Structures are given as structure tokens and as C-alpha cells.
Amino acid sequence: MPIxxxxxxxxxxxxxxxxxxxxxxxxxxxxxxxxYLERMGYTVSFNPKTNIPNWVAWELNAEKLIERESRSDKFxxxxxxxxxxxxxxxxxxxxxxxxxxxxxxxDNRWHWRAMDQSFYMxxxxxxxxxxxxxxxxxxxxxxxxxAAVEPVYIVCGPILYKTPKYGYIGQKHKIRVPDAFxxxxxxxxxxxxxxxxxxxxxxxxxxxxxxxxVNSIDEVERITSLDFFPALPDRIEQAVEAKYNLADWP
Length: 250
Fold this sequence. Notes:
CATH class: Alpha Beta
Order of helices and strands: EEEEEHEHHEEEEEEHH
Helix content: 10-25%
Strand content: 15-25%
CATH topology: Extracellular Endonuclease, Chain A
Structural class: alpha+beta
Distance between the termini: 36 Å
Number of helices: 5
């Protein structure tokens, strides 16, 4: 994607706003530094202070579940970040943390460019190995099952405590290690039965059922200071964000 076609904005406060027809794009807190980038398979609000995303958002549907490409596994510095500031995979070496995808590679096998861009370091957070390969991966797989039935709109990202539990990694740049992660999912817009659900995962080992992590969207908004699914009509947004039913998400 040419640079001219990208929305790239570095600001002292959040710049993302509701986008008509783009249910997945949240409103960023006015206090969050932000580099806003549109990719082929996702949108990212990258924080140049913490060197990890504020959030990553995308739509997933049955068409995007068609696997046309193999997994890349080539982590790349983001070409639209100044090379003097761009995070490289070397910053993670010896850190003990996985390079955890926010928008997973498995959601981007429908096009080679989408696959390559999913490995940009602006889509990556330091993540506990057991979480990355375990319960977080299982939620990614669940999202693909839901998307096979009806399009889903997903936002995920790190949760940072005021007092960092894990601190920072990196040799050339300081990369904040998240204390936890959130993921929120909306579906049912095509069927006329909209519903949404939220999840919060501590950045640590664990092997639990999904009900251990489930939350309402309102609760995830309270914790993250983000406004999810603002493009929804107010009446629908209020209804789907206040409650959830895990039985609706097999």
C-alpha cells in the first residue's frame, strides 16, 4: 500500500474517530499518543511512547478465512515508521517474551500483502509464551469460527497498569510489556441480532475456560478508556455493551 494512501498521524492526543460503516474502529482516549495506520487486513493505533499498539481493529468474515497464503513468520519493522524509531525483532531477543500478534497471522492468509503486514512490529506486543500459544490462541480460533457464520468486528490490545508489573524490554528502544490484554467482538449486524462480548487476559501463564476471562464491553471500556463500536446507533450500542451471554458464543 503506498504511503500516500495511508492515514499516518502522530499527535499528542488521540485522533481516531467513528468511521461510518466501520464498526470496528474505536475512539481513542484523548490522552493517548497515536500513530494511526490503515493496513490491508487491519487498522492500528500505535503508541510511539510505549512502542506497542494502543489498539488493533479489523473485520473478519468468511471470505477472509479462505487460506491462500502460508504463514510468513518474518517479523518486520514497520516501513511507515521512521527507521530511527522503528521497532525491530531484535529488541525481543533474550527478553523471555513472545512476539505476540494483536491481529493474528491466521486472520490474514487470504492475501500475501495482508499476511506480510500482519508481521509488522507495530502489530506486536511482548506476550507471555503460555498465553500466546494457549488461551489467547484459542480465542483467536473461536473468532474464526464465529466469522465463518457471520462477519465479526474485533478490537484488541494491551492493558497497562499505572505501576508496570513487568516494566520494559528492548536494547535500542524501550518497549512496554503489557500487564494484560483485552479483546472485544461484535457480530450479528447482518442477521439483525447484534451482540457483543469482551475478554480480559492477564499477561501470564494459565489454562482456563473462556468464562474466566469474559466481561461486558462496558467493563472493558472502563478499564481501557476506549470507546468501542461508536459507529453503532446509540440504542444498539448501549444494549450490546451493557451485557453479554456466553452461550451466544459457542
